[in-house]
Amino acid sequence: MRGFGHKRSRKDMITELQKNFYRITSRMPYRLRHVHAYLLVQNKNLALFDTGLNTDSALAALEGDLQSVGLDIQNIRQVYLTHVHTDHCSMAGLLQKMTGAKVYLSAPAFEEYRHYRKADEAVAQARSFYASHGMTPAEIDAIIDEFEDIRAIITEFDADDILEDKQVCNFGPTQFQVISTPGHAGGHICFFFPKEKFLLAGDHILPYIAPSLTPNIFDDNYRPLKTYLESLGKIEKLGCAEIHPGHGNSLSSVNERIAEIRAHHEQRKNYFYGFLNNTPKTARMLAQEIFGEDLPDFEKFLALNETFVYLQELKHESRINEKINDSVLVYSSI
Ligand SMILES: [Zn+2]
C-alpha cells in the first residue's frame, strides 16, 4: 500500500492524530502490508479500537509503541473490535488475559468468532459451500488449511458486552456511537465520534481499494453486496469530516470516496455479467475464466468469493438464472 515502502523507526508506528488520540500501525505479511489500531487516552487509561495482527513480536511492539509516548500496556481497559478478521482482532484475547481489559464487539461478530472456534462445524460448512460452487476437493483442502492457519492466530477471548447499533459509549468525557455496517464482514461496526466528527471505519471504507466482500457460508440469505451498499448509505448520512480506516491514510472526502466505491461495484458487476451466456457455468468456472487458471490457492478462494458476490446480486436483479446441476449450482444469462 502507498506510503509503506520506506523504512520507519519504531517511534513512527504510533502517531498522535489529535490530543489523547493515537494511530498504531503494525506490519503484517499479507497483501495490505500493514494494519492500524486506534487508541483513546483518558488519564493514562487506554481504550483500544482493533488490536492488529497477533504475530510473535506484536505484543512487544505494542508495548514499545505505548512506552514511546509514555503509556503503559497494562492500562488498556477496553478493547473495541470493528470485526473479527485476524488482522483486527487476533490480539484481543491476549490483552484481555494480560491486562483484564474488557472486550466489546457486535453480536453477529461474536457469533462469527464462535463459529470459527468450532472447527469441525466450520470445516464441514466450508466444504459444502465451496463444493456446491464447483471447487475441487484439492482446492477446498487448501482453503481449509487457510482457515486453520487463521484460527490458530486468533487468541481466545470472551465478549464482556455486546455492542448494539446506535449505542452511545463513553470513555471518560469522550462519547462515540456504534454504527452497524455489515458488508465487508457480517458483524462489522464503525465508531463515530460526533463532537470530533470522525469515524473509525475498520475495513468498511478504505482509501485505495474497495473492501473485499465475502459470502457467509453459514447463511445462504446473506447478500454481502446489497448489505454493504446499504451500510455505505448510513455513513453518507453521518456528516463525517474524516475517516480513519484500518488500512491506509485517513481521508476527508468521505462521500466522494463512497461514490467511487459504489461505482466500482456497479462496473465490476456488469463486467462479471459479460461472461455469462446460455451455457450454464459454475461460479468456479466463471472465476477461472475471469481471473485465469494459474492462481495461488488463496487467490482462487478470493476470486470465487468475488464471483459469488456478483452472481448473487445478478440473480436478485433477475438478470441471470441459477440452477442446481448434479448438486452443483450453475448460472446462465436469461
Ligand atoms: Zn477485514
Question: Main attributes?
Answer:
334 residues, alpha/beta, Metallo-beta-lactamase, Chain A, 7-stranded mixed β-sheet, 5-stranded mixed β-sheet, disordered N terminus, binds zinc ion
Structural class, from secondary structure content?
A: alpha/beta
Order of helices and strands: EEEEHEHHEHHHEEEEEHEHHHEE
CATH superfamily: Ribonuclease Z/Hydroxyacylglutathione hydrolase-like
What is the share of helical residues? Answer: 25-40%
Describe the 3D structure.
The chain has 334 residues and is an alpha/beta fold. It has a single domain, classed as Metallo-beta-lactamase, Chain A, CATH 3.60.15.10. It has ten helices and 14 strands. The chain has a seven-stranded mixed beta sheet. A five-stranded mixed beta sheet has the order 8-9-10-11-12. The chain has a two-stranded antiparallel sheet with strand order 13-14. A hairpin with a 6-residue loop joins strand 2 (21-27) and strand 3 (34-42). Helix 7 runs antiparallel to helix 8. The chain is globular and about 65 Å long. The protein starts with 13 loop residues before the first strand and ends with a strand. The model is unreliable at 1-11 (pLDDT under 50). The protein binds zinc ion (ZN). Zinc ion is lined by residues 83, 85, 88, 184-185, 203.
